[in-house]
Design a protein that fits this description.
Order of helices and strands: HEEHHHHHHHHHHHHHH
Family: Belongs to the binding-protein-dependent transport system permease family.
Largest sheet: 2 strands, antiparallel
Distance between the termini: 43 Å
Helix content: 55-70%
Subcellular location: Cell membrane
CATH class of the largest domain: Mainly Alpha
CATH topology of the largest domain: MetI-like fold
Membrane topology: Multi-pass membrane protein
Protein name: L-arabinose transport system permease protein AraQ
Main location: membrane
Shape: flat
Length: about 300
């Protein structure tokens, strides 16, 4: 048997060919399992809503229709919500990465007095929280209710992101900053011109986390800005649309005010599929540009030579 697997076909052994074939089949199977639910959701979203009730939609729409998407975008606040979502995601990502990396750099410096105690203080906040009601009164006392700042400032510091960036910085050779300081550079210059460029992988990873978190957030809009239509977000509007569809069956007139006309052309299933795709597309567009840094950033940030 051992000699059988050692038979060569060209430059490759039969055992190696068998391994690559089986490995390829398994990987294709895994890819299909991972992608099929999303692809099926796309097919359902582009299928006629009434026809979808029959079931049996797999890879392709049986009766093609874009009315589910038209129904989603008929909401008059959808344009304002989209602008607010993009703006909050951009600001939360940029400021979150900047503030997180600044704190991580400071905590990574051995000369910082009380470094361990400060780190423990940050870690405690990951496990102990005041709760929803105290947070609400804090936001209210800070004057951020129905203000755009409520989308950015409360989530500006993420302890988990700080720890990840700090671990990455500590994995860098100390000689980089020591040489710069010998030449007269201060801490801010070391951070901005030396450490930050070396942290591109982990910063891209953290940026992706911040962007996904900010884009998918709707609960803070519900709590702190539901009284201001000009501050509504895309996820919040879609949540209202989906909730209305699920609660009132096919009747979406509570949002669109179109009586039973729309009720005959959309269903909770079709609306849910369309909302899922609309909410996912922006992140799917951004992710490929950051994916090459993702695994590298997390892996290097978790080890230290």
């Amino acid at each position: 048997m051992r000699n059988f697997w050692s038979i060569r076909i060209g430059r490759f052994r039969l055992g190696d060919i068998f391994f690559h074939v089986i490995n390829g089949i398994i990987m294709v199977f895994v890819i299909v399992i991972m992608l099929y639910p999303f692809w099926n959701t796309i097919a359902v979203s582009f299928n006629d809503a009434q026809d979808t009730l029959r079931g049996g939609i797999t890879f392709w729409p049986r009766v093609f229709s874009t009315y589910s998407y038209k129904s989603v975008f008929k909401n008059k606040l959808m344009g304002t919500a989209a602008v607010n979502s993009v703006l909050r995601t951009a600001l939360s990502t940029i400021l979150g990465v900047l503030v997180g990396s600044l704190i991580a750099y400071v905590l990574s410096r051995k000369e910082l007095v009380g470094r361990k105690a400060i780190t423990v203080y940050f870690l405690v906040t990951m496990y102990i929280s005041a709760g929803l009601i105290p947070n609400y009164f804090l936001i209210k006392n800070l004057g951020m209710l129905n203000k755009f700042a409520v989308y950015v400032i409360p989530g500006l510091v993420s302890v988990y992101n700080i720890i990840v960036i700090k671990s990455f910085i500590q994995s860098l050779p100390e000689s980089l900053t020591e040489a710069a300081m010998v030449d007269g550079a201060g801490h801010f210059r070391c951070y901005w011109q030396i450490v930050l460029p070396c942290c591109k992988p982990v910063l891209a990873t953290v940026a992706l986390w911040c962007a996904v978190g900010a884009w998918n957030q709707w609960f803070d809009t519900f709590l702190y800005a539901s009284g201001a239509d000009h501050l509504t977000t895309l996820q919040y509007e879609m949540m209202k649309l989906l909730s209305s569809a699920m609660q009132s069956g096919r009747d979406l007139s509570s949002i669109y005010g179109e009586g039973q006309q729309m009720a005959n052309t959309v269903t909770p299933t079709s609306i849910r599929a369309a909302v899922t795709i609309v909410a996912s597309v922006p992140i799917l567009i951004v992710y490929p540009f950051l994916q090459k840094y993702f695994v590298k950033g997390v892996t290097l940030g978790a080890t230290k030579e």
